[in-house]
Amino acid sequence: MAKFITITKVSIDKLKEVQEYKELIPENNSYEELKNSIQQLGFLDPITVNTNYEILDGYTRYRIAKELGIKEIPVEVYQTSGREEELDIIASFNLKRRHLTKSEIILLIDKILEKKKELMKKVEELEKSSTNDKNLGMHPQPSAREEADEIRKELEAKLPPDNVIDNDTIRRYVQIKKEAPWLTNYIGDPKNGKIGIRTAYDIYLALKRKNLLDLDRRIPKSELKLLLTTREGRKIISERDDLLQLILDHKMAVSQAINKLKTEEKLAKSKKSRAKEEEDLDETEEEEGEEDESKGRQRELDENDNEEYDFVGEWQKAKEEEEKQEAKQQLTPQLNGQLLVKQEVTESKTQNDFLNDLKTKGFAELPFEIALIKIEGKCYAINVGALRDLEQGLPEKWKGLEAFLNKYSIIIPDEVEGLYVIPWKLLGRCNEWK
Q1: Measured distance CA(82)–CA(84) in Å, rounded
Q2: Domain map (residue ranges) of the chain
Q3: pTM, rounded to two decimals
């Protein structure tokens, strides 16, 4: 059993990090608060070490001390019989502090149990090599139920009585670990960009239904993290097979799929809001209509009492305006027609010259800058000016282009509604020749 030796102050340079211990403890989500506290009040809790000054507990405080340039820090020294006792100390200290989520607690206990099994295996291998006993060290793989029982017993032994973790949460975690072990790397505190066990289990079930438990081998880690740790990413996994397939086929980045989903949600929300406003407006108009009808009848009665309306004068004025307009139109149709024909001929000639130059000379001068892109074996020219309009949120003139580019996910909806991100580097551009 581990034995407490003393509390003392030592040089920070004397302390040693143990990577396997450091990896057991999740990052503290109150890092800045702890740093401010140490800066103002000093060390309230000493760092726990063994007799070799290897750090067992307090890696966050150790890192802060180095950042602040603290030269000496208080330590609690424990004498242990080896790694197994040190793992128990790590578990005990972290579970008592209550800063871990339930998901992080289960993860910590499971990691410690795995470390203990590794240590036991190494001991048995040494005994096996010294005794030549081939059967020594051979253990059947525990079932999911057995593993869940191991974790539960360890939790009962180390957690305070008022901190209870239900068996279903433990069972879900073990199920994930058995069938999609890579998914446990993303379990932790959501404040640190992780997901809880319940969320991870829902993802596991969705992936299992779709035969995608090997998702970690099908897309890059950075893309996978975005897919798992964002609300929109998880919605793509569970509900949007169309977007998920594009991601798997590497035709769309996860960020693009998320932006597309956000845009669709905003449009749906906007339509729903407009429909509600129109419904409220219809009800208001119906009520006002009844009132206006009553007022209208009264107005008619009042107007009949006034002088007779000058219908003849108004008719004469309208007739004069109409005659003026007809005269103007008779003077200009021939000129307008000539201008229109001339414009059409000029545009047609320019287009024909462009195509003829390409066919006969092999090159042609363009009236504006274009970008080139190949889609499904066909080459398309795109007006750069139109792309810049879409980029700046001016799609009115380019509805056809907007629909075409959205269809093939060439442009990406920006977080600001109505704007687009243009992947200029992926487009064939006209650059000055030097």
Answers
A1: 6
A2: 370-426
A3: 0.60
